[in-house]
């Protein structure tokens, strides 16, 4: 390839001022956010893991999913010092291999977090709509298999970070040779990391709410509120990141011109900040658990969070029992109604005897 053509290709797939850390304002904001995330997230997720493993008396499906979520988030929190140094120095000093591995682990955490939240929603759906089958569908062995498959898919889906991430001119970023590579990478993140899981989550909660409205047991259980809060906060902190992904995909698909230049500046200047905001989702869950279980602090002390997870397991069983009881009552009511109708029909038939003719 001619050197001039190679330069044009590089310019076509990179916006002006292609370093995402060249803006001192965004890097300062990013370093501050990551520092706060590290201070809250590392001890918070470690405490959640300790509470479940060492203190929780009941390991329900919900508790097992929360444990995996805490492990994924805690692993990400352990990586934040590398990115804080990157933001402060505005230069990647850890080498090309670490650039690929660290961003691979970050992308894997994003996929793992949303997939685990999706599994929580699906479990709630099964527990509410098909309580009589939930024991067979969500046995411990099947849940462990589902988690193993999920982690395998997460590791597979994160491979683009190993392919496209590299260090050039002191910047650890995705460097694409073609616009189609940009579209492939960020469309994959958008579809697998946001659109599909959130569509499943949304449909699940719509079905759950419809079922709850149809039953007489409408008590809002603690674990239901907690999982819904996890879903909403994850969406809140990851939505800006995926919006920037959409902007970059449109930028890569656009012909050269003012629009392409404008879109390039938008994603280039905002990606560092939105990536740091996304990190907040990994430290906020322990805060949610704290507020959900604060009523147990006086009585349980440091075991208050373990008590919260025990209650989550009890709530799961109660929701299934309530749904089953509601269905049994509906069946009993239908049986009584049918019996009454049969009795009425017998009574009506005995009183509607036609008079005999000629004394016969």
From TrEMBL:
The keyword Transferase does not apply. GO terms for biological process: inflammatory response; phospholipase C-activating G protein-coupled receptor signaling pathway; positive regulation of cytosolic calcium ion concentration. The lineage of its organism: Eukaryota, Metazoa, Chordata, Craniata, Vertebrata. Residues 326-344 have a biased composition (Basic and acidic residues). GO terms for cellular component: plasma membrane. The keyword Membrane applies. Gene3D superfamilies: Rhodopsin 7-helix transmembrane proteins. SUPFAM superfamilies: Family A G protein-coupled receptor-like. Its main location: membrane. It is a multi-pass membrane protein. Residues 318-360 are annotated as: Disordered. Belongs to the chemokine-like receptor (CMKLR) family. Pfam families: 7tm_1 (PF00001). Keywords: Cell membrane, G-protein coupled receptor, Glycoprotein, Membrane, Phosphoprotein, Receptor, Transducer, Transmembrane, Transmembrane helix. This is Leukotriene B4 receptor 2a isoform X1. It is found in: Cell membrane. One of its GO terms (molecular function) is complement receptor activity. Residues 44-289 form the G-protein coupled receptors family 1 profile domain. The chain crosses the membrane at residues 29-53, 65-89, 101-123, 143-163, 183-206, 226-252, 272-292. InterPro entries: Formyl_rcpt-rel, GPCR_Rhodpsn, GPCR_Rhodpsn_7TM, Leukotriene_B4_rcpt. PANTHER family: CHEMOTACTIC RECEPTOR, G-PROTEIN COUPLED RECEPTORS FAMILY 1 PROFILE DOMAIN-CONTAINING PROTEIN-RELATED.
